[in-house]
Fold this protein.
Amino acid sequence: MDSALDVVRAEPLCAETPARVLAAPITPAPSVYVRSNFALTPLDAAHRIDIGGAVHAPFSLAMHELADLPQRHVTVTMECAGNGRLGLDPVPSGEPWRFGAVSTTTWSGVSLRTLLERAGLAPGVVEILGVGADAGPRDDADGEVRFARALPIADAMHPDTIVATHMAGVPLSMDHGAPARLIVPGWYGMASVKWLTRLDAITTPFTGYFQQQRYVYDVDGAIEPVRRTRVKSMVTSPIDGGRCARAVLVQGWAWSGAGAIARVELAVNDAPIWIDAALGTPASAYAWTPFEAELVLPDAATATIRSRATDTAGNTQPERIQWNRFGYGNNGVREVMVTVGEG
């Protein structure tokens, strides 16, 4: 077990960024969270990505050819859609993520748009389907299921949606999708297909397993695919379960896939009074925004600190989310409990 990660499941690996590391604006590479749906044999140097479907000029791309194309670098806060699942009651099925399945790092690679323009999209294309090399059985599906997710054409053609080959300046590790993966800023992590093996332009919406049966909001049978990251915040200092003085500088991060962070507010215990935090400058348009505020905690043994964020699209974190069958998108206001007093 790697102490740089909090392992949720060893095989295939699912692991969180430890709470002590989440205060860093850029997550150290060994501590970037990992989500794997299936076990996979490492891909060799001969791996290629096929670009096809409804295109005029399908082609296949070797990794060295990808490296020769213009490179783009994007710093992104990426969150697993199931992050915070253990914060729901009752706890839904799925990986038992606490609150550390989120990280910020810099990815490097080639704009997906560059590849699609070379292929030439045919009229009527509505989505781009990314297919990974990972596959396996599922209890609720027949035969082998391959990991695949589709993006609306507007998101696929955004210049900062990339086919990444590097993370934090070095080639991708196996756990992070080597030799190539998608990176889709602003979307939950399932859109950033790892171990990318194929890209298909399609003219009808994709209805595969990971688009219609998993990574969906299932509320009383009403199905909606998980897409953009919901507005969210977290307090990183003082740390949950830690100790602090009554007069304390509270710091943390806020992020959203729908727009920039416009406001973060803090409250103590169940008080209805919310205090505006000062916002800092994010590392990029796709990275979490720092916030901080000086608070004076009650003269009591313990206290809770709550944070809620609002983005420029007008979305504000709810006190709690509408419960959904698989526990995705939990952006409800979270309490951090601290012991008050020095020592």
In short: The longest strand covers residues 127-137. The chain has a mean pLDDT of 96. The CA atoms of residues 268 and 318 lie 16 Å apart. The longest helix spans residues 112-119.
